[in-house]
Write a structure and sequence with these properties.
single chain, alpha/beta, Urease, subunit C, domain 1, TIM Barrel, eight-stranded mixed beta sheet, seven-stranded parallel beta sheet, 35% helix, binds zinc ion
Length: 392
């Protein structure tokens, strides 16, 4: 197998504190070697072993590819008019999802797939090398299953979110919809999904419904993650911890008890600052979560209603500016934090044996991601050792 060395790396983020400085394990003047899909050597440039191919990165920063652990990419249409109305003073409510549901049901498989491919290309350009996507805009057995089937061709991290909102045709019978989600729809979707999720919030599903939905998914071999506490304080976070969910996502409205629960659990607090930005909502108490010892991930929440961004650097910049993460904490949360939120140990780090999912920046340091907001700093992305974007 041929080996490729990335040499003359100005600053290498490994996310292994035993390899370099700080929590990010930074090695200055570094090199990295990968063979096939995996990393085989990391260390100081002066000691790089001989390889068939060398790529001189001219002092650029290199970090693990971003892990986007929360996105909704299986949809049709957009909601730019709703965004404009909200910016003019309207409020975000979970019910807006129904307009995307109508468009998604009307789209062909080919239209859903080409929209997904367009968004995945954007994710990669922003430095994301692993992405999760949920269903949740079909809300019929056929439409949820086809969304997951299409998504599963591009990522193993697919999440069944039949419990996104109660669709209009079940408005008078939410219990009937929960029954559909936990039986027929789940059976059709489980073969194409790794995760089960529920939107436990005002206008969506209550605590008892959320528990029933998660339990049904777990019984079918899926692992849990929860949309929790986005629109108001509620039982979402406590349920996520109680069910050992990999992640409680949003966490916009947290009680002291929620923070304590997260800090004492295996459940990652996944923060989605693009959603607060795009709905003009207060940002979550990220500092309090980190100071209490909770594990924090940052993800894009890419979706047409409340966070239509595919840019992890944008989310990092907001997390630093508005949520008071340090630039190091934000980069860790967008890489290793995302990996933890997906319960993955092979990604989110650049160490021997990890996947060669690598981001090289047009900048000398990862600090530039927050320091230069809105600027495309992606130089090159490798996914499983394969160069994805032509160097600029
Ligand atoms: Zn979401």
């Amino acid at each position: 197998m041929s080996a490729t060395a990335l040499t003359n790396i100005g600053s290498l983020v490994t996310n292994d504190e035993t390899l370099g400085n700080g929590a990010l394990g930074i090695i200055e003047d570094a090199a990295l070697v990968f063979e096939g899909e995996l990393i085989s050597w990391v260390g100081p440039a002066a000691k790089v072993p001989a390889t068939d191919q060398q790529i001189d990165l001219a002092g650029r920063a290199v970090l693990p590819g971003f892990v986007d652990s929360h996105a909704h990419l299986m949809f049709a249409g957009d909601r730019s008019a709703e965004f404009a109305a909200r910016m003019a003073g309207g409020q975000y409510e979970a019910g807006g999802i129904r307009s995307t549901v109508a468009k998604t049901r009307g789209a062909s498989d080919g239209e859903l797939e080409s929209n997904l491919l367009r968004l995945v290309d954007e994710l990669h350009r922003s430095g994301i090398t692993t992405f999760e996507t949920k269903s949740g805009y079909g809300l019929t057995t056929v439409d949820e299953a086809r969304a997951l089937k299409i998504a599963n061709r591009l990522t193993p991290e697919t999440t069944f979110l039949g419990a996104h909102v109660v669709p209009a045709e079940f408005a008078d019978d939410p219990a009937g919809y929960v029954d559909l989600v936990t039986h027929e729809m789940l059976t059709a979707c489980a073969p194409h999904a790794r995760w089960i999720d529920v939107f436990c919030d005002r206008g969506a599903f209550d605590g008892d419904q959320a528990r029933a939905i998660l339990r049904a998914g777990i019984a079918q071999g899926l692992m849990a993650r929860v949309h929790a506490n986005q629109l108001q304080a509620g039982p979402g976070v406590a349920i996520a911890v109680e069910m050992d969910a990999a992640s409680a996502d949003h966490c916009t409205y947290l009680s002291d008890a929620d923070i304590k629960l997260l800090a004492g659990s295996n459940t990652v607090a996944t923060l989605l600052p693009g959603a607060e930005f795009s709905t003009r909502s207060p940002y979550p108490a990220a500092r309090r979560l980190l100071d209490a010892g909770a594990t924090v991930a940052i993800a894009t929440d890419c979706n047409p209603g409340s966070s239509y961004t595919t840019s992890m650097p944008f989310c990092i910049a907001i997390a630093v500016r508005e949520m008071h993460l340090t630039p190091d904490e934000a980069v860790w949360s967008a890489t290793m934090g995302g990996a933890r939120a997906l319960r993955r140990t092979d990604i989110g780090r650049l160490t021997v044996g990890a996947r060669a999912d690598i981001l090289a920046l047009n900048a000398p340091s990862h600090l530039h991601l927050a320091y230069r907001p809105g600027v495309d700093l992606t130089h090159q992305v490798w996914i499983g050792g394969r160069a994805h974007r032509v160097a600029s």
